[in-house]
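thought: user wants a sequence for this fold. calling inverse folding tool.
action: design(structure=
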């Protein structure tokens, strides 16, 4: 092809057809430019196709991760609801002694001592730059904020966990039968929420104490009211934050599903 164009240019110059030569030269330049533009367009199309394939793979990965995050968050919300219910039940037992019974007191004391911890999957798409593969601006915005959004929940969890380990647990060791409480804990399958494989049942029974049999003595220390009120308050606050975070996750999942359908 290059030889062919060179032959035409040479013929025009030899024949002295300068004006035709210049027109031909301009035409040749235009053809070259068009060829370059077509090549660039094909390259851009190929790059875009490659990006869309990578975007789909990333969206599929994110969908799996956030479905897992949603499932875990719902479990933590349910656990805190159990803690709130237990706190109110024990406060009711405190105010109305005739309602008390040992098994229920130990059961609810165990629920108050739970430590729900939301440990979500945090993708590195921001630091790695992979977030730029996503074409939906709202989805990119939500994913950019994800790490900071979970802080509001985890901070509440850390405060409660510190309080439980350093104040509530020592209180129970001093004023109640920790053996009876823990045994009731196992017999009521309270640990189910912590198993990686849901539905796992563990037979574990070290039986109740023969010495400390009256669970009601925990109510003799007026501090129990403060512990229960704080447990209910902090659980409610963490759940309020968790429900806001849940809305973010649901929105992220909806956007991902829409993008996958478009791809």
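)
observation: tool returned 263 residues.
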């Amino acid at each position: 092809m290059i030889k062919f164009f060179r032959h035409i240019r040479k013929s025009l110059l030899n024949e002295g057809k300068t004006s035709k030569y210049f027109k031909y030269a301009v035409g040749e330049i235009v053809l070259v430019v068009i060829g370059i533009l077509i090549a660039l367009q094909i390259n851009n199309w190929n790059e875009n196709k490659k990006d869309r394939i990578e975007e789909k793979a990333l969206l599929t990965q994110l969908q799996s991760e956030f479905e897992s995050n949603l499932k875990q968050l719902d479990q933590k919300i349910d656990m805190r609801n159990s803690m709130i219910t237990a706190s109110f039940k024990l406060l009711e037992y405190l105010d109305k002694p005739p309602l008390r019974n040992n098994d229920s007191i130990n059961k609810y004391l165990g629920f108050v001592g739970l430590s729900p911890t939301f440990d979500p999957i945090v993708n590195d798409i921001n630091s790695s730059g992979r977030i730029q593969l996503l074409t939906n601006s709202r989805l990119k915005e939500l994913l950019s904020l994800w790490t900071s959004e979970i802080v509001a929940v985890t901070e509440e969890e850390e405060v409660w966990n510190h309080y439980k380990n350093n104040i509530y647990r020592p209180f129970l060791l001093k004023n109640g039968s920790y053996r009876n409480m823990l045994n009731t804990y196992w017999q009521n399958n309270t640990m189910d929420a912590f198993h990686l494989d849901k539905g796992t049942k563990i037979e574990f029974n070290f039986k109740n104490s023969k010495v400390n049999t009256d669970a009601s003595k925990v109510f003799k220390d007026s501090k129990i009211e403060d512990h229960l009120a704080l447990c209910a308050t902090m659980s409610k606050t963490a759940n309020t934050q968790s429900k806001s975070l849940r809305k973010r996750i649901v929105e992220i999942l909806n956007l991902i599903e829409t993008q996958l359908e478009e791809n």
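thought: summarizing for user.
answer: Here is the designed sequence. The CA atoms of residues 83 and 118 lie 15 Å apart.
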